[in-house]
């Protein structure tokens, strides 16, 4: 087992991983904006996608620690930085991946919290809340299915595809839970 690297934030590790996602380490790199788009397309299904300002501050921190290479592209009067993960970044990421303890997610579920106080809503409003959530789940699942379909089956994207499939199973499970809760609210009118 590798020793843990100097502590980085989960966002830093996520950005390092996103810089490697499906690419080799000798690519042209990504701008902070492009990395934010990649985070929005991928992380949002299972992690909080970082704010634009957080992406830039984490990229600067990673560059200062020597985990990224920043190239400057000049187009007219505008300079754009393109970031690439370097060997130090790959080592830090691999060390974290192999040595960080398995931690369980903290459930922060706004619908469950609202349902917990359902006596203040009443049965009809609680049912409408769950119906609305069920529709949102279907929409999110469709978005994630599109991501999974776009990944295809190349070996370089095997693990992102597995995570997308995990997310699809999560949405299916969440839908099943909500369906049971709705049936519990409306036992005479089971859907």
Keywords:
mainly alpha, 7 helices
In which order are the strands of the major sheet placed? 1-2
Shape designation:
elongated
| Count of helical stretches | 7
Q: Tell me the major beta sheet.
A: 2 strands, antiparallel
Low-confidence stretches: 1-5
Query: Cα-atom Rg, whole angstroms?
Result: 21 Å
* H-E string: HHHEEHHHH
Strand content: 5-15%
Fold and architecture overview:
- This protein is mainly α and 191 residues long.
- It has helices at 10-20, 32-42, 52-64, 87-99, 110-116, 123-151, 158-185; strands at residues 68-75, 78-85.
- Helices cover 59% and strands 8% of the residues.
- It has a two-stranded antiparallel ribbon with strand order 1-2.
- The termini are far apart.
Quickly describe the structure.
The chain is 59% helix and 8% strand. It is mostly helical.
SSE layout:
Layout: H1 10-20, H2 32-42, H3 52-64, E1 68-75, E2 78-85, H4 87-99, H5 110-116, H6 123-151, H7 158-185
Antiparallel strand pairs: 1-2
Helix pairs in contact: 2-3, 6-7
């Amino acid at each position: 087992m590798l020793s843990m690297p100097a502590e980085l934030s989960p966002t830093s590790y996520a950005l390092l991983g996103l810089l490697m996602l499906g690419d080799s380490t000798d690519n042209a790199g990504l701008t902070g904006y492009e990395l934010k788009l990649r985070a929005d397309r991928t992380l949002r299904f299972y992690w909080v996608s970082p704010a634009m300002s957080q992406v830039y501050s984490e990229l600067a921190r990673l560059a200062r620690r020597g985990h990224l290479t920043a190239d400057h592209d000049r187009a007219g009067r505008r300079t754009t930085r393109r970031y690439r993960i370097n060997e130090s970044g790959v080592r830090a990421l691999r060390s974290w991946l192999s040595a960080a303890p398995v931690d369980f997610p903290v459930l922060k579920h706004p619908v469950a919290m609202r349902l917990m106080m359902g006596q203040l809503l009443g049965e009809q409003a609680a049912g409408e809340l769950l119906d609305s959530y069920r529709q949102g789940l279907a929409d999110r699942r469709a978005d994630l299915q599109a991501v999974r379909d776009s990944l295809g089956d190349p070996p370089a994207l095997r693990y992102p595809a597995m995570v997308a499939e995990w997310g699809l199973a999560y949405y299916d499970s969440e839908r099943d839970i909500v369906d049971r809760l709705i049936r519990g609210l409306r036992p005479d009118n089971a859907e």
